[in-house]
């Protein structure tokens, strides 16, 4: 019966991927980082991994892509593990901005004064400065270790993407100087930005994203080894941040129409977490799973056009919303 169910689910997903792949015309590949412009706008791939090793994989799966903003979730998690939740939350808030991820509009208005949340650039750059270590490589070591534990191999930085972003990102430098002026940064601005650009350039696949999603769904515990990889209280804050701030200034719509914690990146990736729900008895495999999506054509907010359509359709068909 499980086998039959799986085959049935696989066929559904294959059909939906084929359908939504043709619906990217309203989107555009990110071009503000020159290297990202080379992506195929019509690519669409998805991996769903449940507990017990059950997997559904469909579409363009042999693309690897830079993790971009999805790394903000992981650096926040690492910072909380290494420095303590209280310490981090005194320095970055947990409120959505309703503005673009790299907006400078909101920088002066939060009270108490600190960046609004770790998933917009001002908060993420601050978090990069709070990571332990004096160099970007030292700072990123625990992040690589965390990823390795989850995805089973040590991911690599795409040097071309890194250089491309480093040499063009004037906005992030402007944000960095503002943070420096306000005294938010704990490490040298150059090292902080290098850390941020490098973490955004880590190469991953939809399979990797689905594995990360599954660990978050499972309250930070690795589903195979039972090892606690992320403390439950850290995983919980990460998921609430994803739900309220993870899809940029479209987070409210995503929460309403899809209803699961997710984080997108400008290379077209989406990390999504489907929490366990007793109601899904007829599809037990989907009861607590991770989803990774890749579709580089983006909407105005910077989210994958086809990726959002696909997730919305899947979440509604299979009743995945947490609400
Ligand atoms: N590297 C990107 C930037 O800071 C990450 C942004 C994103 O994925 N939204 O501009």
Report on this model:
- With 323 residues, this protein is α+β, with helices and mostly antiparallel strands.
- It is 44% helix and 11% strand.
- Strands 3-2-8-7-6 form a five-stranded antiparallel β-sheet. The protein has a two-stranded antiparallel sheet with strand order 1-9.
- The longest helix is centred in the first third of the chain and has 20 residues.
- The mean pLDDT is 93.
- It binds glutamine.
- Glutamine binds next to loops.
- The site of glutamine (GLN) has 12 residues, from loops.
- It catalyses: L-glutamine + H2O = L-glutamate + NH4(+).
- Pfam families: Glutaminase.
- This is Glutaminase.
- Homotetramer.
Helices, strands, pairings?
Layout: H1 2-21, E1 28-29, E2 45-50, E3 55-59, E4 65-66, H2 71-83, H3 85-89, H4 121-130, H5 136-151, H6 159-166, H7 170-182, H8 189-200, E5 203-204, H9 206-217, H10 232-245, H11 251-257, E6 262-264, E7 269-274, E8 289-294, E9 297-298, H12 305-317
Antiparallel strand pairs: 1-9, 2-3, 2-8, 4-5, 6-7, 7-8
Helix pairs in contact: 1-12, 2-4, 2-10, 4-7, 4-8, 5-8, 6-8, 10-11
